[in-house]
Amino acid sequence: MATLAAKQIEGHALGKTDRRDAWWTGPLATVIVLSGFGIYATFRAVYAQDYELGHGARVNKVLAEHSYMLSPFFSPLILLPSMPAWFSPAFLILWAPGGFRLTCYYYRKAYYRSFFGDPPGCSVGEMKGGRYMGETGLFIFQNLHRFFLYIAILFILLLAIDAVHACFWPTASGGMTIGMSVGSLVLAINVVLLSLYTFSCHSLRHLIGGNIDCFSCVAFGQSRYKLWKGVSKLNKNHMLWAWCSLFSVGLADFYVWLVASQTITDLRLF
User: Fold this and answer.
1) Which residues contact 261 (CB under 8 A, 6 or more apart)?
2) Is residue 221 part of a domain?
3) Does the residue 69 lie in any domain?
4) In this structure, is residue 87 part of a structural domain?
5) What's the angle, vertex CA 86, arms to CA 80 and CA 88, rounded to 5?
6) Residue 220 burial class via C-beta count within 10 angstroms: exposed 0-12, middle 13-18, buried 19 and up
7) Residue 147 belongs to what domain range?
């Protein structure tokens, strides 16, 4: 590896390397998946239809006999009285989870390599000749990640409330009963995966205890140490939770779209 690195420093040509493995498959897959998700999320935000259903829904094709389900792309649903017809309520929401992922330490590594070739991979030549500028200039906003973390935690709570709402079904007498469907299960799994991604965040690990040299010397030291160990365990699989939660939030929106548009029927489990 040291020999490869030494050779690479001499050339710095983009993609130049002595590696014989398929190092480019990871960056290519990242470009395809992130681009696909970005296109889908943008389309759904602009389309702005069939994002909720059930009791209390305010869109066409309401399924009043269904529990209330809301797409995570539109949660919390904000409908302003003066909102123009072309303005989607998703525009008021997606900037927050999008900003959290965009500034995420793992995603930064992924899209720096994939979209900007900075660098494309270990011991692979990059366009800038190996000069890393850090989060400065255009990318100085990356330092806002900790603040996006606070907002992301709030969104976890809101999405958890949505998952609970999806378990209350209207009855013929006008009351409510507890039930579970494939849709409510999809929303619940999405909350779990988003929680694992959010609570395995590097910034959260640092805030809890990463900046402490002596846990016994600070207030609530033992409690913070236990929390820090728990977050550290989750942090080991931060990349896994990042991708799983990306798929789950897209799947949750897609499922609500299919049911709300009456393309499919949500199967009630009990």
Assistant:
1) 49, 50, 61
2) no
3) yes
4) yes
5) 55
6) exposed
7) 2-200+237-260
Closest CA to 97 of 195, 178, 215: 195
Query: Strand pairing of 168-170 and 176-178?
Result: antiparallel
Please provide residue 52's backbone torsions phi and psi, each rounded to the nearest 5 degrees. Answer: -150, 160
Q: What type of residue sits at position 146?
A: R
Question: C-alpha 221: how far from its chain's center?
Answer: 31
Tell me the pLDDT band of 6, cut-offs 50, 70 and 90.
very low
What's the total number of domains in the chain? Answer: 1
Inside any domain, residue 12:
yes
pLDDT tens digits, residue range 121-172?
A: 777 777 765 566 666 766 777 888 889 999 999 999 999 999 999 999 888 7
Q: CB pairs under 8 A, 24+ apart, for 133-138?
A: none
Q: What is the pLDDT of residues 56-106, one digit of tens each?
A: 676 545 566 889 999 999 999 988 888 788 889 999 999 999 999 999 989
